[in-house]
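#lab-general

N.A. 3:47 PM
ok so I finally got the sequence cleaned up, no stray characters, all 112 residues accounted for. can someone with queue access submit it? mine expired

B.Y. 3:52 PM
send it over

N.A. 3:53 PM
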Amino acid sequence: MLRAARHQKSTVLVLLFAAWVLSPFVGLVYAHLSSKQWLPSPRVLLYVLTLVVVFTCPGVYAAVAFGHTTLKMGFVFLMLPFACWLFIGLVVCIAWLVSRKPSRQGEEAERN
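B.Y. 4:20 PM
back already:
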């Protein structure tokens, strides 16, 4: 990110940019800390998402910063964290919906 922003003179803008780029990683840490009470299946989905984000994002950032792609740097550094946040939100929503549904065994026990 610093290589991509080497021509930027505003320190505040670079710091805001850094916070935005790092925010999905912080969000994943928070999701992992909050996932202790989740059911196993959404937790596995969160683990897979974490692996994808941790290995894909730095690779994409490096490819853009070192000129291995024709994409605009600003576009990638703004949209990739946004896409990560969308996927994190999707996983958290799935976990919330799955955890709200009562299990079949619980319904049967309530009927008896």
